[in-house]
Design goal:
InterPro entries: Dehydroquinate_synthase, DHQS/DOIS_N, DHQS_C. Pfam families: DHQ_synthase (PF01761), DHQS_C (PF24621). The protein has 5 helices and 2 strands. It is α+β, with helices and mostly antiparallel strands. It has one domain. It has a two-stranded antiparallel ribbon with strand order 1-2.
């Protein structure tokens, strides 16, 4: 979500109703940090990656499928590729739809229920 210009928080009247549209100054992708996350959190993030691959960047599907082992043990090289491709997919959408009201709506699929 940090790659999106749209950042929002939940309030007492609803989800994601208070927010801004500002481009981040810097985005850090630390694969070492991923080791601190539970399997559930990793799977949650990878679902988002798969969704974006299917909806935005189908060219990454075959390689992505090969990088998702059944034992859920991901090496740093695989995670770096997944992160790089995910950033490219989101950038492809947000570059032309800053406020995510057209093509950028694809980034919202699943979020209403998921959060």
């Amino acid at each position: 979500s940090v790659l999106s210009l749209k950042q929002a928080v939940n309030s007492s009247v609803g989800k994601n109703l208070v927010g801004t549209f500002y481009q981040p100054v810097e985005v850090l992708a630390d694969t070492e940090f991923l080791r601190t996350l539970s399997r559930r959190e990793i799977r949650s993030g990878l679902r988002e990656v798969v969704k974006n691959a299917l909806a935005i960047r189908p060219s990454m599907i075959d390689r992505l499928a090969g990088l998702l082992p059944l034992d859920e043990r991901y090496d740093d090289e695989a995670m770096r590729w997944i992160i790089d491709e995910s950033i490219a997919a989101k950038a492809q959408v947000t570059e032309n739809d800053v406020h995510e009201r057209g093509q950028g709506l694809v980034l919202e699929y699943g979020h209403t229920v998921g959060h």
